[in-house]
Amino acid sequence: FIQAEAASRLGLIQVLEGARQMTAVKVTKLEAARHQLDAAIELFFTADNPMAVHTLTAAAYNVLKDLAKREGLEYPFIKSGFLDSIPKQQRSSVWAFLHNPENFLKHADRDPDDVLELNPQLTELLLLDACSYFKHSGAPAPRHFDAIKAWGGNLRADIDPASPLGLATTQVIAALKAAGKQHFWQWYNQLLESKRLSSGAL
Which of 2, 8, 71, 186 lies 20 to 30 A from 44 at CA? Predict the structure, then answer.
């Protein structure tokens, strides 16, 4: 048994040494958050995996919140400006509602027997709020930014929501949402493909 354990440890050391020699992937905080949001958005529409979506969303959100604070930006807003506006006697319960799910999904040292009741609407709200950072910072947005923006009902800045075009667009998006996330995702990708073909891109 001792010899087998020693051999196993030696094998693990060799694997780790080999990993150290591989080319590392270098990424900035902003790039990491953008990649996490892209994965979260795609999973949000295509997979029945709310825990993975929430974990990715929360990780990206917290990075962007810290970057926004450093840059003097207001968004993402929910865990900063909104939370600060809550009366002190209610703030702790709201803080727990916002943060407990992500902490549950990351740790088990203090609550190994707890059970999580995750509200998918919280995940969607945080996902939309996280993406708002890119609208206000001017940084390159995630690839699927327009999909989640449309899902949230945000029209282009040049479209008046009260105009015929704005009303028609809102109605179309509402109908697509009613058909479900996967149907909405298919529509979004078909729209991207038609834009690609019309622009003559290969």
Answer: 71
Each residue's pLDDT tens digit, 80-137? 999 999 999 999 999 999 999 999 999 999 999 999 999 999 999 999 999 999 989 9
pLDDT at 99: 96
pTM for this one? 0.82
Residue-by-residue DSSP string for 141-202: PPTTHHHHHHHTTPPPTTS-TTSHHHHHHHHHHHHHHHT-HHHHHHHHHHHHHHHHHHTT--
Distances (CA, A) of 19 to 6, 10, 14, 22, 54: 20, 14, 9, 5, 29
